[in-house]
Automatic annotation (TrEMBL):
<feature type="domain" description="Ionotropic glutamate receptor C-terminal">
    <location>
        <begin position="30"/>
        <end position="251"/>
    </location>
</feature>
<keyword id="KW-0732">Signal</keyword>
<dbReference type="Pfam" id="PF00497">
    <property type="entry name" value="SBP_bac_3"/>
</dbReference>
<feature type="domain" description="Solute-binding protein family 3/N-terminal">
    <location>
        <begin position="30"/>
        <end position="252"/>
    </location>
</feature>
<feature type="signal peptide">
    <location>
        <begin position="1"/>
        <end position="19"/>
    </location>
</feature>
<dbReference type="InterPro" id="IPR001638">
    <property type="entry name" value="Solute-binding_3/MltF_N"/>
</dbReference>
<protein>
    <submittedName>
        <fullName>L-cystine-binding protein FliY</fullName>
    </submittedName>
</protein>
<dbReference type="InterPro" id="IPR001320">
    <property type="entry name" value="Iontro_rcpt_C"/>
</dbReference>
């Protein structure tokens, strides 16, 4: 009986190991994509509570070319790499900035969109340049590339206080109520909210850091990375990417 039990256990371990070695890195042709569902216009909830956005459309189009089914899983953005490495999600795909530090944790596709970190203030604010933030209250999304950009700038040591928020919406809300003087945020996000609330915000002329977005995949899953990159390249070549970009940005911003 013991031998039979050991044999059964061995077979279960072999099956589990084989299952984990899928060439696509997904289970049953399905992929779970981790997103921040308050990151407009990349991925967010509309008035019907449906998840929409540029990255959402972009991911769906790529999945179709890959022959995969996808679901979008809102996650705690500050734990995104942990969610990926634990296997709870298969990709991080929602305005995910490529950095050297993140490259040590995940695999990245080629950059597909350019962005920069900027500072948003109220439209009637006297703040007009970065040095004006000295002695002011500043906010940003926790564990985001906004934090990296601010930390790399000398103004970081001159601000009065830095508040971190779970998402950009909460930071901008505190800015509107004047609990903050400025918010460090992705330019694509800032411009989206500026278009939705005219005459509420303005951008400082100086940006903190240029950056590029990529899709993050668990290290060791090169097969899935290759499959995804092939789909993205096809979308660039056949005009799919340009069509999605024009829908959300009014022009083709997708990098080739």
């Amino acid at each position: 009986m013991k031998k039979n039990a050991l044999l059964v256990l061995f077979m279960i371990m072999v099956i589990a190991a084989l299952s984990g070695c899928s060439s696509s890195g997904s289970k049953d042709g399905k992929l779970v994509i981790g997103i921040d569902d308050k990151f407009a216009p990349m991925g967010f909830r509309d008035e019907n509570n449906e998840i929409v956005g540029f990255d959402i459309d972009y991911a769906r189009a790529a999945a179709e070319k890959m022959g995969k089914e996808i679901t979008f899983q809102p996650i705690d953005w500050s734990a995104k790499e942990s969610e990926l490495n634990s296997g709870r999600i298969d990709m991080i795909w929602n305005g995910y900035t490529i950095t050297d530090e993140r490259k040590e944790k995940v695999l990245f596709t080629k950059p597909y969109l350019e962005n920069s970190q900027v500072v948003v203030v109220l439209a009637d604010s006297a703040i007009s340049k970065l040095e004006d933030l000295a002695g002011k209250e500043v906010g940003l999304q926790s564990l985001s590339s906004a934090a990296d950009a601010l930390n790399a700038n000398p103004i970081k040591d001159q601000i009065a206080n830095l508040s971190e928020f779970p998402d950009n919406v909460l930071a901008l809300t505190d800015l509107k109520t004047k609990r903050l003087d400025g918010v460090v945020i992705d330019e694509v996000v800032a411009r989206y909210y500026m278009s939705k609330e005219p005459n509420t915000f303005k951008l400082l002329d100086e940006s903190l850091a240029p950056e590029q977005y990529g899709i993050g995949i668990k290290k060791g899953n090169e097969a899935l990375l290759e499959l995804l990159q092939k789909a993205l390249d096809e979308m660039n070549n056949d005009g799919t990417a340009a069509k999605i970009s024009t829908k959300w940005f009014g022009e083709n911003k997708v990098l080739k």
